[in-house]
Amino acid sequence: MFGKEGDPLYTGQLVLLRSFDAGDLNALYSYLNDAETMGLVTDGAVMPATMEDTAEWMRNQPYPSGGVYQFAVETLSDGRFIGRCGFVQIDRKNRHGEIAIHLGDRRSRGKGLGSDAVRVLCRLGFQELGLHRIWARCFSMNPACMGCLEKCGFRREGVLRQALYRRDAWHDIYVYGLLKEEWEGSAPGPGLQSESKGALHP
Hey, where are the domains in the chain? Predict the structure, then answer.
């Protein structure tokens, strides 16, 4: 098991990024079937997940040979599994990777936990995986995602205009990026500031 408590590579100020275990199954199943939240995570159709599909997905994490590293997000204060985050694709030739975060536990939003998880991902990507650039996407109707990324030093690099159709309306998709030298030149904050209480989904 990777991401044990106390491992500085996977531990932030507020959260631990670790591998999934059997105890996460019921909560993850619930998070994946929160249609409102999932509408902020995927640009595809929001479909219900079965318990079997959820268990199979957990068994396949992480999948480093495919450029995918998914972690469970656990609070350091009380050891609760509150969501997932990770690298959803990595381009090893050009040394950049896309991250995403999904805080499924609504009670855990707006407390700096998402920002702390993103900072841990950046440290992992730049120090351990040797990336030059880390980037993320978020939807224009998700201000919590934008605030989370900007607080972590990401810059809005572009916009895919009306690239998402959700809730009978067209929405833009924003592209955010962070370069290694920008990350190295910033002093990582403690991740304690308050966030908007939306779903955090780059």
Answer: 15-184
Alpha-carbon Rg for the chain in angstroms: 16
Q: What is the pLDDT along the chain (202 residues), one digit of tens a residue?
A: 455 655 677 999 999 999 999 999 999 999 999 999 999 988 888 889 999 999 998 988 866 666 688 999 999 999 999 999 999 999 999 999 999 999 999 999 999 999 999 999 999 999 999 999 999 999 999 999 999 999 999 999 999 999 999 989 999 999 999 999 999 987 454 333 334 444 544 3
The CA-CA-CA angle for residues 178, 183, 188, to 5°, reads: 125
Predicted TM-score (pTM) of the model is 0.87
- Tokens 């910033």 belong to residue: 186
Whether 20 and 32 have beta carbons less than 8 Å apart is answered as: no
Given this structure, which CATH class describes domain 15-184? alpha beta
* Secondary structure letter of residue 15 according to DSSP: E
